């Protein structure tokens, strides 16, 4: 009997990846892995929404750059549901620093930088609750 549970998580395809035409490819990887899209929205987030979304980082030196980047162009947010979804998706996206991300992960295959690292994904149930509420507001 499996100990894993069915969970929800949020991914956000960042402006660098939408600009490069990677939305379909990225969502497709999750679907092929058995993660089911429950809700999807494309939007260019306002600075105010970006500041709320990334509030956990507001004291970090890179906060300004992060907010400017995420609000600089279209993003696509998807709520995914599946077995152990939060950890599974985090493994699939790879390390934050794209140059350290393993080949075969989304960042390892497509990302070019640190701020411009193609995709964001919730790292806990609490972040999922906050980020999904903010993104879809
Ligand atoms: P993400 O998973 O969206 O979560 C916060 C983001 O901050 C991270 O991906 C990076 O894109 C961005 N970032 C910019 N500079 C740094 C840094 N020095 N350390 C960690 N994250 C950073």
Number of strands: 4
Radius of gyration over alpha carbons? 14 Å
Task: Supply the CATH superfamily name.
Answer: Nucleoside diphosphate kinase-like domain
Question: Helix coverage percent of residues?
Answer: 40-55%
Bound ions, cofactors and other small molecules, one mention each: adenosine-3',5'-cyclic-monophosphate
What is the tally of helical segments?
7
Main sheet makeup: 4 strands, antiparallel
Tell me what you see in this structure.
With 137 residues, this protein is an alpha+beta fold. The protein has a single domain, classed as Nucleoside diphosphate kinase-like domain (Alpha-Beta Plaits). The protein is built from 7 helices and 4 strands. A 4-stranded antiparallel β-sheet has the order 2-3-1-4, sandwiched between helices. The longest helix has 11 residues. The chain is globular, with a radius of gyration of 14 Å. The mean pLDDT is 97. Adenosine-3',5'-cyclic-monophosphate binds next to loops. Adenosine-3',5'-cyclic-monophosphate (CMP) binds next to loops.
Ordered list of secondary-structure elements with their pairings:
Layout: E1 6-13, H1 15-19, H2 23-32, E2 36-43, H3 47-53, H4 63-70, E3 75-83, H5 85-93, H6 106-110, E4 119-121, H7 125-135
Antiparallel strand pairs: 1-3, 1-4, 2-3
The chain binds adenosine-3',5'-cyclic-monophosphate.
């Amino acid at each position: 009997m499996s100990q894993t549970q069915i969970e929800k998580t949020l991914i956000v395809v960042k402006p660098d990846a939408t600009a490069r035409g990677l939305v379909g490819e990225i969502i497709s990887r999750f679907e092929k892995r058995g993660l089911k899209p429950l809700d999807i929205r494309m939007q260019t987030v306002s600075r105010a929404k970006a500041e709320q979304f990334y509030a956990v980082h507001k004291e970090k030196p890179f906060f300004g750059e992060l907010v400017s980047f995420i609000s600089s162009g279209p993003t696509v947010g998807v709520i995914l549901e599946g077995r152990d979804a939060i950890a599974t998706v985090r493994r699939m996206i790879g390390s934050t620093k794209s140059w350290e991300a393993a080949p075969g992960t989304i960042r390892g295959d497509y990302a070019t930088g640190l701020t411009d690292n193609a995709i964001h994904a919730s790292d806990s149930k609490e972040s999922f609750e906050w980020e999904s509420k903010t993104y879809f507001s």
